[in-house]
Amino acid sequence: MCQYKLPGGVETLKISTLAAIEEPTPACPYPNAKLLGQDNTEAILRSHIERLGGTVEYGTELRSFEQHSDRVVALLATKEGELDKTETVVCHWLVGSDGARGTVRKQLGLSFLGDTRYEEQTVIGLVEVQGLDAEHIHQWVGLPGSGYLLMTPTEKPGYFTIGLTGETDVEKLVADRDALIHAILKRIERQDLVFGQVEAVSSFRPNIRMVDTFGAGRVFVAGDAAHIHSPAGGQGLNSSAQDSFNLAWKLTLVEKGLASPSLLDTYTEECLPVIATMLQNITLFYVAMRATDQHGWWRPQDARRRLSLGLRWTSAQPGHSCLRVPTHRLWRR
User: Fold this and answer.
1) In 77, 266, 287, 305, which residue has its Cα 20 to 30 A from 179's Cα atom?
2) Cα torsion at 6, 12, 18, 24 (round to 10°)?
3) Burial tier of 92 (Cβ tally within 10 Å: 0-12, 13-18, 19+)
4) What is the pLDDT of residues 99-111, one digit of tens each?
């Protein structure tokens, strides 16, 4: 990370290493983090689903659902011109990965308690910038309490993701490209950078919340529908994908009759303590980052990888009564 002196905004104050580069090992073949934009991440996931014969349906809203002893009946809605077209879908299970404001958790009546004390909003976006190298994260930090600006290079040449804090009229910066560029120029106090397209911009205010159970009956929640937090630890996508993987293999066994439905209880059993610990750690990182101290950006090895997390204590162990297949086909290191 390259931090610049203010006033002036051009001279380097210091260059810091956020994480040491490490050699791959058999136990950890991919030890070094890579940044990948959400659009490319989603494209990879979509292509994988399509190779497996699935599709992703856009412009479809879950309006409501009803649970029965052997099924879930979901009401979906799509747009046909100005009119709503509704469709009823009958399924054995329903998983809500529909975000923090989604329908599934709310209709299930699950609690979503946590820490909402952070009022500071961050303007985030993807901006075309000429004049910055793509080898560093670039940072400008003002006086204590005035916020900071981050510009992080992306896999798209010439484009940087921005994170801007300390602004009062966030809604205007999100809606007005010129106002956003003006705020950036005011923060960096330099005129040698050229700003082009603003491809995406939005605001973000961190909440730290989670559910008290990850499902009820035949309906479950995963990802942001179950837990939200600041991006300080970089664990949002990781934890959400692990939720889905955890639930998917269990649903598969139950649906195929290879395990009893009681196996699904271990989804909550395993996720609750892991996610609670993650939220605690990420909140500590976020507090340190808000202090604009370089040490707050350092991530110890375990905080980045989370490889020390394990579920050897879970009741979904080989030989558990809920499993009906040979244990060597189920157990993973």
Assistant:
1) 287
2) 160
3) exposed
4) 999 999 999 999 9
Indicate the Cα dihedral angle 20, 23, 27, 31, nearest 10°.
Answer: 40
Surface-to-core class of residue 158, CB atoms within 10 Å of its CB (0-12 exposed, 13-18 middle, 19+ buried): middle
Q: How many beta carbons lie within 10 A of that of residue 32, not counting itself?
A: 12
Longest dimension (CA), the chain: 68
Q: What is the CA radius of gyration of the chain?
A: 23
Alpha-carbon gap, residue 62 to 18, rounded angstroms: 41
Long-range contacts of the stretch 251-255 (C-beta < 8 A, 24+): 251/93, 251/95, 253/323, 253/325, 253/330, 255/92, 255/93
Two structure tokens written together for 171:
């809604």
- Single pTM value for the model: 0.81
- In 165-226 the beta strands, taken as DSSP E runs, fall at 194-204, 208-210, 215-216, 219-221
Q: Hey, what are 36's tokens?
A: 């990948």
- Are 216 and 66 in contact, with CB atoms under 8 Å apart? no
How many residues are recorded in the chain? 333
Residue 45 tokens read as 């996931």
Domains of the chain by start residue, with CATH: 2-10+117-204 (3.30.9.10), 92-116+208-329 (3.50.50.60)
Q: Where are the beta strands (DSSP E) in 44-112?
A: 60-67, 72-80, 83-91, 94-96
Per-residue pLDDT of 253-306, as tens digits, reads 999 999 999 999 999 999 999 898 888 877 777 777 666 555 555 555 555 565
Cβ atoms 104, 221 nearer than 8 A: yes
Strands 159-164 and 215-216: unpaired
Q: Give the chain's count of helices (H) and strands (E).
A: 7, 16
Residue 120 three-state SS: coil
The DSSP letter of residue 263 is G
d(CA 62, CA 72): 13
What burial letters (b/e) apply to 197-217, b meaning 16+ CB within 10 Å? ebeebeeeebebbbbebbbee
- Token match 């104050």: residue? 13
